[in-house]
Write a structure and sequence with these properties.
2 domains; mainly alpha; single chain; 198 residues; Rna Polymerase Sigma Factor, Chain: A
Length: 198
């Protein structure tokens, strides 16, 4: 849906069905993303509202995304959180402890997955830089491409590759130090675990 130019064309014409479809597709994932980045669900809700208000404003003026709506919305969310952080003079923690809601984690993952995931979260929170955590989050949990991750973070693809490599190396070193070798069933945890060589 991220490259659906017909949906974007309809949205630029202020077609109500297209706008509602965009909101329905992206509001919940954007809220989760914002809440994970800023650690405040109320602020995350306001940020998502601002993202859609900005999208409407840009579409109505003939601007906004032509392709890759998903990347555009995540990038806007990211920049609004950064702006809010600067405005409020608080450091926005890139908390990874809330990456999955406890109730959804219990349903979708087994005990081995949860243990491994908690170990990975601990390492991410304590041993990685904010940029490294953000790259891991976007690449493996949100499943963005290198190009999309670079666009969202405002970095070059090569810089994202370096951040990803350093993050994976640090995660692998720490997890191997704990001698954790578990079989995982959750697709997202499995993908991250595979990248770590576990």
């Amino acid at each position: 849906m991220e490259n659906d130019s017909s949906l974007l064309d309809a949205a630029r014409e202020m077609d109500q069905d297209a706008l509602v479809k965009i909101f329905d597709l992206y509001s919940f994932p954007l809220f989760n993303y914002a809440a994970r980045l800023c650690g405040d669900p109320v602020l995350a809700d306001h940020i998502v509202g601002d993202v859609f208000a900005r999208l409407l404003e840009q579409l109505s003026s003939g601007q906004g995304p032509r392709t890759n709506l998903r990347s555009y919305l995540y990038e806007t969310t990211y920049h609004l959180i950064i702006d809010e952080t600067r405005y409020s003079r608080r450091r926005a923690p890139l908390e990874v402890a809330g990456l999955l809601r406890p109730e959804s984690q219990a349903r979708s993952t087994g005990l081995d997955d949860q243990i491994l995931f908690q170990q990975i979260l601990h390492v991410m929170k304590n041993d990685l830089t904010d940029d490294q955590r953000h790259v891991i989050f976007l690449r493996f949990l949100e499943e963005f491409s290198l190009r999309e991750t670079a666009a969202i973070m405002g970095k070059t693809i090569d810089h994202v590759k370096v951040l990803q490599h350093r993050a994976i190396t640090a995660l692998r070193r720490s997890i191997e130090g704990q001698r954790t070798r578990k079989r995982v069933s959750s697709p997202k945890i499995s993908k991250l675990s595979k990248a770590l060589g576990l």
